[in-house]
Amino acid sequence: MLNYWIGMAAICAFAMAGVLAAGRRGMDIIALLFMGVITAVGGGTLRDLLLGVPVFWMIDFNYVWVASAASLAAFALARHLRDETVWAAILYLDAFGIALFGVQSIDKALAHGFAAPVAIVMATITGIGGGLIRDVLAQRENLLSSREIYATTIITGGMLYTFLLAQGGASHGASLCGVAFTFAFRGLAIHFGWQMPKWLTLRH
């Protein structure tokens, strides 16, 4: 139950970050509502479709209601939410969200008989899928086109989690380690403004 409510809080962060990232002058409330919701649930939707399982928000529509409410709140409070301190808090909550949903996605994939590498891919899709769809629709630079360290944190956290599970570690302890590592990595990247080093980027 605690994970459920934490997940809902993360959905709020995804939606609000989606509205603030995609919003630009002249964009109406319906467009921004869609941007927020697609950011919040888009990645999980892609994951479930690829796994061939019922889409999570179709089973529990509360995810969509919460994402919608958070999107409308972000629209109404956009001027205040762009304050540096508030925006940082949203980013850190977003970081916790990708950490939690990454582990949950791996568990879901493994429970349906998929191999660990597939499970890590599903975790990554869950974390970045909604943002990628939003960025394409908003015609803005997406996460994968920038040097921002985001997907890397999900992948490395997922690798650690699946490794601990493979070593016979307790599922609960492995989950805590996976979530903590991903959150800490992403949190440090936010705090220090880390980017992928230039030697690991394509140069002409």
Plain-language structure description:
With 204 residues, the chain is an all-alpha fold. The chain has one domain (2-195). It has 9 helices and no strands. The chain has helices spanning 2-22, 29-51, 56-59, 62-76, 78-81, 84-111, 116-138, 151-166, 171-192. Helix 1 packs across helix 6 (84-111), helix 6 (84-111) packs parallel to helix 8 (151-166) and helix 7 (116-138) packs antiparallel against helix 8. The protein is globular and about 55 Å long.
Give helix % range.
over 70%
Could you describe the largest sheet, including whether it forms a barrel? Answer: none
Helix run count: 9
Shape summary: globular
- The SS-based structural class is mainly alpha
- Domain module count: 1
Classify the beta-strand content into a percent band. Answer: under 5%
DSSP strand count: 0
Low-confidence stretches: none
Radius of gyration, taken over Cα atoms and rounded to an integer in Å: 17 Å
Mean pLDDT: 88
Keywords: Cell membrane, Membrane, Transmembrane, Transmembrane helix
Family: Belongs to the UPF0126 family.
Subcellular location: Cell membrane
Protein name: Putative membrane protein YeiH
Give the arrangement of secondary structure elements.
Blueprint: H1 2-22, H2 29-51, H3 56-59, H4 62-76, H5 78-81, H6 84-111, H7 116-138, H8 151-166, H9 171-192
Helix pairs in contact: 1-2, 1-4, 1-6, 2-4, 2-7, 6-7, 6-8, 6-9, 7-8, 8-9
